[in-house]
Amino acid sequence: MEMMLLWKLIILLPFMNCNTEEDTLHGPIFTQEPYDITYSMGSADPEILLNCTAKGYPLPYYRWKQNGTDIDLTMSYHYRLVGGSLAINNPHKKQDIGTYQCLATNSFGTILSRKAKLQFAYLENFETKTRSTVSVREGQGVVLLCGPPSHYGDLSYAWIFNNNPLYVQEDSRRFVSQETGNLYIAKVEPSDVGNYTCIVANTKAEQRVQGPPTPLLLRNDDRSEAQLEC
Ligand SMILES: *[C@@H]1O[C@H](CO)[C@@H](O)[C@H](O)[C@H]1NC(C)=O
Ligand SMILES: *[C@@H]1O[C@H](CO)[C@@H](O)[C@H](O)[C@H]1NC(C)=O
Ligand SMILES: *[C@@H]1O[C@H](CO)[C@@H](O)[C@H](O)[C@H]1NC(C)=O
């Protein structure tokens, strides 16, 4: 009886040595952790994938936390596990924004991944529907405020004049600040009179919105000076 066991060992041992590292019992180790993601609200892709993979033997199983709270993956069409990665279907800014962590567990224990931030690039519509008229004396300078709507992600700005399909071209008299979106016009001429509309674009969100027009008028100098003299 003992002899038989010894024989079995002698036969089996070389095979056991051939076994790869993965088959030796060990706790989970991450091979892929989730990274920060900025999801575009204008994106055609209806799913976000937060990556997570771990090796371990026995094979690990996975859980996820959002903002430190366990996500219920069982009763939801919103979430799906792809291996260890978390797929979020039809992402919503309000519900899904936050910090995510992956947990991998086997009989040896549980490991917790790095924190991955999920952000949403978006650009809302302008809140204001009308802008009050700006009046300026001929030859003076004026600033037209863009006042971009609520957003996440870098913005770029342009202006249109009346119904001209072309953007207002910057020149020695005209300047568009890419910091604020404001349009600066120096030495105003009668031909500058009209409606100015700010166009805001968020490349990351793949969205573009148009503000309400601001009418620019020339101020009647004589009358205001006459009134001041009284
Ligand atoms: C997630 O993993 C897939 C497959 O390995 C890879 O193509 C993709 O770039 C990863 N995404 C991120 C955000 O790391
Ligand atoms: C998660 O945290 C973010 C940032 O603090 C917060 O905006 C978001 O509402 C939180 N989400 C949930 C579901 O608690
Ligand atoms: C500016 O807009 C107002 C209101 O929409 C309109 O009545 C006016 O004719 C416009 N002016 C020009 C020069 O297009």
UniProtKB/TrEMBL annotation:
Gene Ontology molecular function, alphabetical: cell-cell adhesion mediator activity
Keywords: Disulfide bond, Repeat, Signal
Gene3D superfamilies in alphabetical order: Immunoglobulins
Signal peptide residue numbers: 1-20
Domain Ig-like stretches: 28-119, 124-210
Any one GO BP annotation for this protein: axon guidance
Source domain of life: Eukaryota
Classification via Pfam families: Ig_3
This protein's GO CC annotations: axon; plasma membrane
Xref: PANTHER family: CONTACTIN 6 (PTHR44170:SF38), PROTEIN SIDEKICK (PTHR44170)
Name of the protein: Ig-like domain-containing protein
UniProt source species: Alligator mississippiensis (American alligator)
